[in-house]
Amino acid sequence: MCVNFTPPTAQQIRQHFGYEVDDDLWKPDCWQDYTAPIITRDGLQLASYGFVPKRHLPPGVRFTTMNARAETIGEKPTYKAAWRKGQLCLVPMQAFFEPCYETGKAVRTRIGMADGQPFAVAGMWREWQEPEGATSYAFTQITINADEHPLMKRMHKPGDEKRSLVIVPSGQYQEWLACSDPELARAFLVEYPPDLMMATADPIKKSVSGKEV
Predict the structure, then answer these.
(1) Kind of pairing between the strands at 107-113 and 163-165
(2) N or C: which end of the chain has fewer CB within 10 A?
(3) Residue 112: Cβ within 10 Å count
(4) 10 Å Cβ neighbour count for 97?
(5) pLDDT tens, 42-51?
(6) Do 2 and 98 form a contact (C-beta atoms < 8 A)?
């Protein structure tokens, strides 16, 4: 599933989402444990990508929590408390990236809006108490089955289940954030119209030294 996305710039947050925020608070691309902006019912927060940051995993334990399956989000120990409490958020972004295997090998593919505008996907957040006493925030993205979605079914390995992030229409942002009933929240977890989306090949380039750029 999605493990990499491009957050909006601070200017895009101000213009498209209406929150005042300083520049240069997050990196231009987001990966596990990177900081990114999220929107909760209380406003804009900076949070770590992945519901359980690596620093909070027990020694020797490895698992990723960047994506939460909608089908099991209310039962999985990692997510169920926050889901039942309605700790929903929006994850603003310019695009997210998935592997497309239509050529026979994985091609990193950029998925965004056909009009090029920023958008937001459904997520969930939680707090963490840090050893020094501070409170930090972390988030996960919610995913749904996309086996029949004309665009998203093209992603991932042949034979694998197709999954998609849940793109929330801008007119439903406040309704999603205000929803405190987990069963009502499921009504928002639907496919986004493929004609409003765009997918383009966007492979990670390597410099002469072999480093990704």
Answers:
(1) unpaired
(2) C
(3) 22
(4) 19
(5) 999 999 999 9
(6) yes
